[in-house]
């Protein structure tokens, strides 16, 4: 079975920052895969724009190299690559100056969908938005895509939102969080709202607790100085983890539409209780046998920035009253895993006399690696010897269930870019969501700053500081093992 590909309307996609890391590593290789799948109409074009003084031919060489370096199996499709490169143009443009803008205005067509990807630092968003209007390149139907970080606190996020709002309406702004583009994240909604089985159990009567883990094996490496200004809370929790929390906890929207879904997510963020300081563990990795410590990477021997965070949160509403949500994320951990785990409550009473174990249904939703879900159920251990119970997974790993079709599943970036062209904002964050998320995280960060909170150290390649284990052990629960 081959995945169904729905072509989009012809478009001109301008990538500001088209020579940067994100464009070369993710956006262009992703667009090439969409081209290969037949989703990109004949007369669509991608226009790179940055200050580098190259021409379109030079840009094509750069992107050919990027596909060779960052592409997957598709990098062997040399004929297709050549055809894809024909779709590329480049205009040298300075976001802060006037050079190149008239040339860009002449190039971008007005009779196709116009999308502008701001793959540059947020300090340039205002300049780009302003010039897109003053040079009449964008109109009311155009879309802009903006990248994280979307602010570093509530005030800066509000300022960014206001800057963009001067020139674009909310329905034109696509704030990308690539976690929302992942197949499993969307499947989470399909499983919750497309089956009769789960939703009746999705509440504090049946759910004991929920865990969200986003563990990375990489350390901050050469990005240390940049990372040191943000830390795990700003870099991961405020956006990715909170988005996952919203999807798992939200009420069923009335329909699968952008505002219906985002209204429900916003209600979750607003219902998040402030977190008690003793329900948060911050960590910083130490030096390993042949790896540097966080502080060495950050080139800041007195850095108090966290490279790991674990926290226990509560959502103050009828559905989730009393159900803890444990979240953790960190760098330099033992495995690369992103996973949401729903742990259901124990049976009130067991009819099986010899069974002294606690059997729990556990639904785990895996974003990476091996996107998929598995549901742990209790069955009789096969064979003689009486009624002995064991827990087995009902594995719903997509690669096995869907065969070839799963291999055609687009990567998060390419899927989201196609959603921009389609004008579908469901999987993008709305401005009020981003602000509500900062409103919740700001007091936590301010508390650390006021107290000069010192993160606990942890060994690289571990599951984080010991205190993160205690955070959940104190409640008689345990983290799911981090297994890749
Ligand atoms: P980068 O490698 O530093 O690239 C920045 C791009 O902006 C370059 O193409 C640069 O090209 C261009 N640029 C800089 N100043 C400009 C100006 N005045 N006018 C026009 N173009 C200008 O950064 P990146 O890693 O691609 O990241 C881009 C944005 O995405 C950042 O906000 C980053 O935080 C965010 N992001 C990146 C990643 C990632 O994986 N890399 C992931 C998530 C979010 P010239 O120097 O030629 O002008």
TrEMBL record:
What GO terms describe the biological role, i.e. biological process, of this protein? glucose metabolic process; pentose-phosphate shunt, oxidative branch
Annotated residues for binding of substrate: 178, 182, 216, 235, 331
- Please state what class of enzyme this protein is: oxidoreductase
Glucose-6-phosphate dehydrogenase C-terminal domain segment(s): 189-480
GO cellular component terms, alphabetically, are: cytosol
Give UniProt keywords alphabetically. Answer: Carbohydrate metabolism, Glucose metabolism, NADP, Oxidoreductase
Q: Name one GO molecular function term.
A: glucose-6-phosphate dehydrogenase activity
Q: Which Gene3D superfamilies would you find in this protein's record?
A: Dihydrodipicolinate Reductase, domain 2, NAD(P)-binding Rossmann-like Domain
- Spans traversing the lipid bilayer: none
Q: Where is the active site?
A: 240 (proton acceptor)
> Which Pfam families has this protein been placed in?
G6PD_C (PF02781), G6PD_N (PF00479)
Domain called Glucose-6-phosphate dehydrogenase NAD-binding: residue spans: 14-187
Q: Could you tell me what reaction this enzyme catalyses?
A: D-glucose 6-phosphate + NADP(+) = 6-phospho-D-glucono-1,5-lactone + NADPH + H(+)
Q: Its family?
A: Belongs to the glucose-6-phosphate dehydrogenase family.
What is the stated purpose of this protein? Catalyzes the oxidation of glucose 6-phosphate to 6-phosphogluconolactone.
Q: What is this protein called?
A: Glucose-6-phosphate 1-dehydrogenase
Organism, by scientific name, is Cognatiyoonia sediminum
């Amino acid at each position: 079975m081959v995945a169904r590909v729905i072509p989009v309307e012809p478009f001109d996609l301008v990538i500001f920052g088209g020579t940067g890391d994100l464009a070369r590593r993710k956006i262009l290789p992703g667009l090439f895969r969409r081209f290969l799948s037949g989703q990109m109409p004949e007369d669509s074009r991608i226009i790179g724009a940055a200050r580098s003084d190259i021409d379109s031919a030079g840009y094509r060489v750069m992107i050919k190299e990027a596909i060779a370096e960052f592409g997957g199996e598709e990098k062997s499709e040399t004929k297709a690559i050549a055809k894809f490169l024909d779709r590329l143009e480049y205009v040298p443009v300075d976001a802060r100056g006037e050079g190149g803008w008239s040339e860009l205005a002449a190039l971008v067509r007005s009779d196709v969908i116009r999308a502008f990807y701001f793959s540059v630092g947020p300090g340039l968003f205002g300049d780009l938005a302003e010039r897109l209007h003053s040079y009449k390149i964008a109109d009311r139907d155009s879309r802009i895509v903006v990248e994280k970080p979307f602010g570093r606190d509530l005030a800066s996020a509000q300022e960014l939102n206001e800057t963009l709002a001067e020139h674009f309406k909310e329905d034109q702004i696509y704030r990308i969080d690539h976690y929302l583009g992942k197949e499993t994240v969307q499947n989470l909604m399909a499983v919750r709202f497309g089956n009769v089985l789960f939703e009746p159990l999705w509440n504090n009567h049946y759910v004991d607790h929920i865990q969200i883990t986003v563990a990375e094996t990489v350390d901050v490496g050469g990005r240390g100085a940049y990372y040191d200004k943000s830390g795990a809370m700003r870099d991961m929790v405020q956006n990715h983890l909170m988005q996952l929390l919203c999807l798992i906890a939200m009420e069923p929207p009335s329909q699968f539409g952008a505002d219906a879904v985002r209204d429900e997510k916003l209600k979750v963020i607003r219902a998040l209780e402030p977190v008690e300081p003793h329900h948060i563990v911050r960590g910083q990795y130490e030096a390993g046998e042949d790896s540097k410590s966080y502080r060495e990477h950050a080139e800041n021997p007195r850095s108090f920035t966290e490279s790991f965070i674990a926290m226990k949160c509560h959502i103050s509403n009828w559905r989730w009253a009393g159900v803890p949500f444990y979240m953790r994320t960190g760098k330099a951990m033992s495995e690369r895993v992103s996973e949401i785990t729903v742990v259901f409550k124990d049976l009130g009473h067991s009819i099986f006399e010899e069974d002294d174990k606690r059997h729990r249904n556990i639904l785990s939703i895996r974003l990476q690696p091996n996107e998929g879900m598995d549901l742990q159920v209790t069955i009789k251990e096969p064979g003689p010897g009486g009624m002995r119970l064991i827990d087995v997974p009902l594995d719903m790993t997509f690669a096995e269930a869907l065969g070839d079709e799963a291999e055609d599943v687009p990567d998060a970036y390419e899927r989201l870019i196609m959603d921009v062209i389609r004008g579908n904002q469901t999987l993008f964050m709305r401005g009020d969501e981003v602000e509500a998320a900062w409103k919740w995280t700001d007091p936590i960060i301010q508390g650390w700053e006021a107290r000069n909170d010192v993160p606990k150290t942890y060994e690289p390649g571990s599951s984080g500081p010991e205190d993160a284990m205690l955070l959940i052990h104190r409640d008689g629960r345990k983290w799911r093992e981090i297994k890749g």
